[in-house]
């Protein structure tokens, strides 16, 4: 399926791990908050739907997507947090800053994930315009927040399988 047609809320759900004891942090950028709030709702609801406990989901806000990296790191460094989901929207074309911000956040999130050895999920939309952003945050293309939460769940599942020697 091409990424243009993909519904971001459609994913395979076989063999998902028990996440009832897992703790999640969702870091949300305030820029384009009409979209990032929808991403948050999608991520939060997906975690709950697949077994997370509300008390085990914490939220932190950062001013813009550029700050997601450091915000994610502060949560990922906490021993009790198992996975972090970073949500933002950087609209292309409104400013040339988008390339700098997108690359910095993608690289930064990767670094935090590797440094802390935890799933730190890149849930940053990079649409061409607000219409595309809305289509991907609860519109015709589903919700990237759902997908980001499911990615966190699947990575926790893979981690526990690898740690248990499942692939030996
Ligand atoms: N943050 C976003 O999350 N999305 C944006 O589309 C966005 N556009 C920006 C455009 C410009 C020209 C600037 C200076 C900042 C923008 N930011 C955006 C904010 C950025 O992520 C960060 O919060 C600030 O640059 C402060 O470090």
Describe the structure.
A hairpin with a 2-residue loop joins β5 (137-139) and β6. The mean pLDDT is 93. With 168 residues, this protein is an alpha/beta fold. A four-stranded parallel β-sheet has the order 2-1-3-4, sandwiched between helices. Strands 5-6 form a two-stranded antiparallel ribbon. α1 crosses α5. It has a single domain (24-123, 143-163), classed as Rossmann fold. The termini are far apart. It has helices at residues 33-49, 68-76, 97-116, 130-135, 144-163; strands at 24-29, 57-62, 83-89, 120-125, 137-139, 142-143. It has five helices and six strands; from the N terminus they run βαβαβαβαββα. Riboflavin (RBF) binds at residues 29, 31-32, 63-67, 88-91, 95, 97, 101.
How many helices?
5
Assembly annotation? single chain
Helical residue percent? 40-55%
Would you state the CATH class? Alpha Beta
Catalytic activity: (2S)-2-hydroxy-3-oxobutyl phosphate + 5-amino-6-(D-ribitylamino)uracil = 6,7-dimethyl-8-(1-D-ribityl)lumazine + phosphate + 2 H2O + H(+)
Pfam family, one: DMRL_synthase
Keywords: Riboflavin biosynthesis, Transferase
GO molecular function, one term: 6,7-dimethyl-8-ribityllumazine synthase activity
């Amino acid at each position: 399926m091409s990424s243009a047609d993909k519904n971001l809320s459609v994913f395979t759900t076989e063999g998902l791990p028990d996440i009832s004891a897992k703790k999640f942090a969702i870091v949300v950028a305030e820029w384009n908050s009409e979209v990032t709030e929808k991403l948050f709702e999608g991520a939060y609801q997906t975690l709950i739907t697949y077994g997370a406990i509300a008390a085990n989901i914490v939220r932190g806000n950062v001013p813009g997507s550029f700050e997601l990296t450091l915000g994610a790191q502060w949560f990922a460094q906490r021993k009790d947090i198992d996975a972090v989901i970073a949500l933002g929207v950087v609209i292309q074309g409104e400013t040339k800053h988008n390339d700098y911000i997108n690359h910095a956040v993608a690289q930064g999130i990767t670094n935090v994930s590797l440094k802390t050895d935890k799933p730190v999920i890149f849930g940053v939309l990079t649409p061409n315009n607000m219409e595309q952003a809305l289509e991907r945050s609860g519109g015709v293309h589903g919700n990237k927040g759902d997908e980001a939460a499911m990615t966190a769940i699947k990575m926790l599942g893979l981690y526990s399988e690898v740690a248990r020697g499942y692939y030996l």
